[in-house]
Predict the structure of GNAT family N-acetyltransferase.
Amino acid sequence: MTEYHFRKAIISEIPQIWDILQLAILRRKEEGSDQWQDGYPNPEVVQKDIEKGEGFVLTDGETIVGYTAVLINDEPEYANIEGEWLTNGDFVVCHRVAISEKYLGKGCAQKMIGCIEDFATQNNIYSVKADTNFDNIAMMKVFEKLGYTFCGHVYFRGGQRKAYEKVLHKSKI
């Protein structure tokens, strides 16, 4: 049984992270999407994520199997949603979710989103907000499977994105 771990990424891991992102960018292109086809994300973005303590990896032993950026209350575009969020308080947002080719179909995206939810509750935040391209069917299915609610649309670099939110429950201690 594979035991995955979710932790902050370190600068020396940028090459492995970038390999995962490059293949994800290519995969989106092959699916006919314009998501991530404009030079974003790139290694500089990943480096900034890590320097700010916002870059995270999902690992299987020593192997990096996924990458995401996790931010707290830091997505200005979310204030301009065409629709309505479920909550207006503190939130965690994840961006740049990418899974290694070798680990596709193994539930790693769901596992990583679950880890992001754990990160939120550990920081006493009970809302996770996220968005994905209007044609990223795989990510939309992950959000739906994990109980996220479609809240409307947000725009990044001119592109429409579907916005989701999940309200987490405070654990009873």
